[in-house]
Design a protein that fits this description.
The chain is an alpha+beta fold. The chain folds into six domains: 65 residues, Helix Hairpins (Orthogonal Bundle); 242 residues, DNA ligase/mRNA capping enzyme (D-amino Acid Aminotransferase, Chain A, domain 1, 2-Layer Sandwich), CATH 3.30.470.30; 87 residues, Nucleic acid-binding proteins (OB fold (Dihydrolipoamide Acetyltransferase, E2P)); 81 residues, DNA polymerase, domain 1, CATH 1.10.150.20; 86 residues, Orthogonal Bundle (DNA polymerase, domain 1), CATH 1.10.150.20; 68 residues, Rossmann fold. The protein contains 25 helices and 24 strands. The chain has a five-stranded mixed sheet. Strands 14-13-12-15-16 form a five-stranded antiparallel sheet. The radius of gyration is 29 Å and the shape is globular. It binds 2-(butylsulfanyl)adenosine. The site of 2-(butylsulfanyl)adenosine has 14 residues, from strand 3, strand 8 and strand 11.
Length: 714
């Protein structure tokens, strides 16, 4: 509620220069609340509660205190909030340490492999002690809480892992989240899961039904919907909870082990999961998995698996990360949920690379709380009941329209069909025949030898391929243009506004002024149109890796795009190499397949695409609109950044995989073979032909100790 006077009751008339830090902090908090309430009243409720003059006085006082105490400026500072924009969305927060996801294990075997992989990476013998933690995987949404000097300054959702949404005001309303903690490190980012209990979920849905509000499909959706409320008052009325299980930036370590660190978080007042245990072998992990699974139904909140983490934080550090997941942790998922339903039709979707994918249209059925009406059928072999090698799957039972099929869902994975009930097969059901022409453009659909799928040969003339390519182009890991998602792309394509990626960058010139204008389209207005044009312009300057990924070249995923960008470093060098390379021979080809992680299949696809006339014309038009940022060596201040390194012989202080990952994290390129481009050869005992070649080429050669000294790991 807004106060009657526009002044803090205690310190409001103290000159700013005379405020103590504590007073300034308290007054800033009070001002943030007052101004937010006034904004809500004015902009959202259209019912102003204070005069314009009082409003201005509050804002001025806030600005004056911030100017004098810059370090106290709040994450939700009213000076960063333009009143009218309050309702438009959340502010963005760049995570100081990326928020990652977890790799999955499904079978017991996967858990043993996880342990084996880690031992191999670290060079630990099978009988060396290695401790893990095991804890429930909470089915909610992750949240990062930033405390500075013990005060909750910012709360952010995961978003894309790099940038999340600022939900600070909302997080403050969650009882499990302390707003102040004592004896904490100066910077402490606590991460964990926001969730809703089964009872609270049922009560919320009952209330929603009564008030005619929207019912939530499951507790996870309810938690997400409740946290992501622009009005924190609504969040406050929803009973959310929080389990802490990880951390981000820290000014001082929380402990030597995962379990110590979690205990430390508990001592700060966070709720940590009581089912967390340490385990000394994969068998113990599996045993604890069973214990947790047995309690799943009675926990009172949703969990979807068990997370295993290496306990020793020094080992976690050595293991590090793949592009989006840590090597030191894995999520062991509970078995997928199953349901039987009728297969009503099989539709064909054409993807961006022309693949014809059969999709099952199902009689809607609830699987684990979610209504499923579509499932993937992979390809024609899968429907026919055989795998890629011709071996039977489902004991050779094929799938026909009209069949009763078993659907399963594991986490967020697209639902699949696992079985078919032959006893209930209608008499008139016929085997499914894959179309031989593209249902979208009529071109021939061909299945090449060794390819599991049939592909449309229409290329750029096929509307489905074109739209899918555009959708890929604007997707999160590619250009990620705010306001331009799959839906908008489809509409623009349908009306001929955009046919290839380059057209996106001429939208303003074509539809910003003149007869036909974006702002006059249905669903658009002056502001949203100008926002879109600005968002597009913002992405003209873009990192090389994103550009390579955005092209949607077959076999080139996000990871490979990053490898290629790091290798070639500039668009010109990449383009030059792809244009001159000859498949299967020559220096450019050898250089390409010499990149660790690039095989002949990917290399062939790259070279073919980049040399295909129509594709190339479209790519060139795109590049002309952009300013592609060179790939910087990832750690420019490291002595090996940008250098090409080859490891050979036996390494004694680290495994090959670890050496490679460490070198790459310092911005070096690791290659498998010595060439004139090699900068350093690290040669352990037993080094053979590579050492000789390096000597012939005059490449700097050093032993493992010298390498470790060079990178500061000695
Ligand atoms: S650890 C660096 N522990 O699962 C790894 N995650 O699928 C940090 N999650 O994004 C995550 N319970 O939202 C961890 N006990 C737990 C978890 C957990 C749920 C979520 C989290 C994460 C996702 C990955």
């Amino acid at each position: 509620m807004v106060q009657e006077t526009a002044q803090h009751p205690e310190t409001g008339d103290t000159p700013v220069a005379q405020l103590t830090t504590a007073q300034a902090r308290a007054e800033l908090a009070w001002l943030a609340e007052q101004i937010a309430a006034a904004n809500r009243a004015y902009h959202r409720d259209d019912a102003p509660e204070i005069s314009d003059a009082d409003y201005d006085a509050l804002k001025q006082r806030n600005a004056a205190i911030e100017a004098h105490f810059p370090s106290l400026k709040r994450a939700d500072s009213p000076s960063d909030v333009v009143g009218a924009e309050v309702a438009e969305g959340f502010g963005k927060v760049r995570h100081a340490v990326r928020m990652l996801s977890l790799g999955n294990a499904f079978a017991d075997e996967d858990v043993h492999e996880f342990d084996t992989r880690i031992r191999k990476y670290l060079g630990l013998a099978a009988d060396t002690a290695l401790r893990y933690t095991a804890e429930p995987k909470i089915d909610g949404l992750s949240l990062s809480l930033r405390y500075e000097n013990g005060v909750l300054m910012q709360a952010a959702t995961r978003g894309d892992g790099e940038t999340g949404e600022n939900v600070t005001a909302n997080a403050r309303t969650i009882a499990d989240i302390p707003t102040e903690i004592s004896d904490a490190p100066a910077v402490l980012e606590v991460r964990g899961e926001v969730y809703m209990s089964h009872d609270d979920f049922a009560a919320l849905n009952a209330r929603q039904a009564e008030s005619g509000g929207k019912k939530f499909a499951n507790p996870r959706n309810a938690a997400a919907g409740s946290l992501r409320q622009l009005d924190a008052e609504i969040t406050k009325s929803r009973p959310l909870r929080f389990f802490a299980y990880a951390w981000g930036e820290l000014s001082a370590p929380l402990g030597d082990t995962q379990s110590d660190a979690i205990a430390q978080l508990a001592s700060f007042g966070f709720v940590t999961n009581p089912l967390t245990r340490t385990c000394d072998s994969p068998d113990e992990l599996l045993q604890h998995y069973k214990t947790i699974e047995a309690q799943r139904a009675t926990l009172g909140y949703d969990i979807d698996g068990v997370v295993y983490k290496v306990d020793d934080l020094a080992l976690q550090k050595r293991l590090g990360f793949r592009s989006t997941t840590p090597r030191w942790a894995i999520a062991h998922k509970f078995p997928a949920e199953l349901a039987w339903t009728r297969l009503e039709a099989i539709d064909i979707q054409v993807g961006r690379t022309g693949a014809l994918s059969p999709v099952a249209r199902l009689q809607p059925v609830t699987v684990g709380g979610v209504v499923v009406s579509n499932a993937t059928l992979h390809n024609e072999d899968y429907i026919a009941g055989r795998d890629g090698n011709g071996a039977p799957i489902r004991e050779g039972r094929d799938i026909r329209v009209g069949d009763w099929v078993q659907v399963y869902r594991a986490g967020d994975v697209i639902p699949k069909i696992s079985d078919v009930d032959l006893a209930r097969r209608p008499e008139d059901a016929v085997p499914y025949v894959m179309p031989k022409t593209c249902p979208e453009c009529g071109s021939d659909a061909i299945r090449e030898e060794g390819d599991a799928v049939r592909r449309c040969t229409g290329g750029i003339i096929c509307p489905a391929q074109a739209v899918e390519k555009l959708k890929h182009f604007v997707s999160r890991a590619a250009f990620d243009i705010e306001g331009l998602g799959a839906k908008q792309v489809e509409q623009f394509y349908a009306d001929g506004w955009i046919t290839t990626p380059a057209d996106i960058f001429t939208l303003r010139a074509r539809y910003g002024t003149g007869v036909q204008q974006l702002k006059n389209r249905e669903g658009w207005g002056e502001k949203s149109a100008s926002n879109l044009f600005d968002a597009i312009d913002e992405k003209r300057e873009i990192p090389l890796a994103r550009v390579i990924f955005s092209l949607g070249i077959r076999h080139v995923g996000e990871n490979s795009a990053a490898l290629l960008a790091n290798h070639y470093t500039s668009w010109d060098a990449f383009e030059q190499a792809m244009t001159t390379a000859e498949i299967g021979a020559g220096a450019a080809w050898e250089d390409l397949i010499g990149i660790d992680g690039v095989g002949t299949v990917m290399a062939t696809s790259l070279v073919t695409t980049m040399q295909q006339e129509a594709e190339r014309a479209s790519i060139d038009r795109l590049i002309a609109e952009l300013s592609v940022q060179d790939a910087e060596a990832r750690a420019t201040d490291s002595p090996v950044a940008g250098k090409t390194v080859v490891f050979t012989g036996t390494l004694e202080r680290m495994t090959r995989a670890e050496a490679k990952a460490r070198a790459e994290s310092l911005g070096a390129k690791v290659s498998g073979s010595v060439s004139a481009k090699t900068d350093i050869l690290v040669a352990g005992p037993g080094a053979g032909s590579k050492a000789k070649k390096a000597a012939d080429l005059g490449v700097e050669t050093m032993d493992e100790d010298a390498w470790l000294a060079l990178i500061g790991d000695a």
